[in-house]
């Protein structure tokens, strides 16, 4: 198995705190402390890949995009979740002097799971694009009826939009 240097060698706990805060960060720390992160490996692009066991098992990838810490995960939150925080903490345990992580193969199951996620997202995109304006309005009104958070968010945005008009 080929081994690569650790691109996360400059990562500090403060960077993780600045990235994800509050209860999500706490939950991530706890998952890490309980040993929930397993099979940490590095992709060809230098991204960290891991399995994270929280309430369910998730495939997680943590990486730098324009030097900013970011992540994708198979959980509902999808990014900057507790699972990603757990992986970031795990990476702090690695030897800072170019330690070695096993390389993830191209057909790694976690990469497949995460790319399926992207496919699902783009299919939703396609579906929305196929709807007419009236159908979109109907869909959004349905969502506001079914999901109180959507209703609240929409009311907020509406008030913002109206207050901008007044200026
Ligand atoms: Zn997650």
Describe what this molecule looks like in 3D.
The protein has 167 residues and is an alpha+beta fold. The chain folds into 2 domains: 3-104, no CATH class; 131-166, no CATH class. 51% of the residues lie in helices and 19% in strands. The protein has 6 helices and 6 strands, in the order E-H-H-E-E-E-E-H-E-H-H-H. It has helices spanning 13-19, 22-33, 82-92, 109-130, 133-146, 148-166, and strands at residues 3-4, 37-42, 48-53, 57-65, 68-73, 101-102. The protein has a 4-stranded antiparallel sheet with strand order 2-3-4-5, sandwiched between helices. A two-stranded antiparallel ribbon has the order 1-6. A hairpin with a 2-residue loop joins strand 4 (57-65) and strand 5. Helix 2 packs across helix 3 (82-92) and helix 5 (133-146) packs across helix 6 (148-166). It is globular, with a radius of gyration of 20 Å. It starts with a strand and ends with a helix. Bound molecules: zinc ion (ZN). Zinc ion binds next to strand 4.
Number of domains: 2
Mean pLDDT: 88
Strand segment tally: 6
- The SSE string, one letter per element, is EHHEEEEHEHHH
Major β-sheet strand ordering: 2-3-4-5
Strand fraction equals 15-25%
Outline: globular
Keywords: Metal-binding, Zinc, Zinc-finger
InterPro entries: Znf_SWIM
Domain SWIM-type: 58-92
Protein name: SWIM-type domain-containing protein
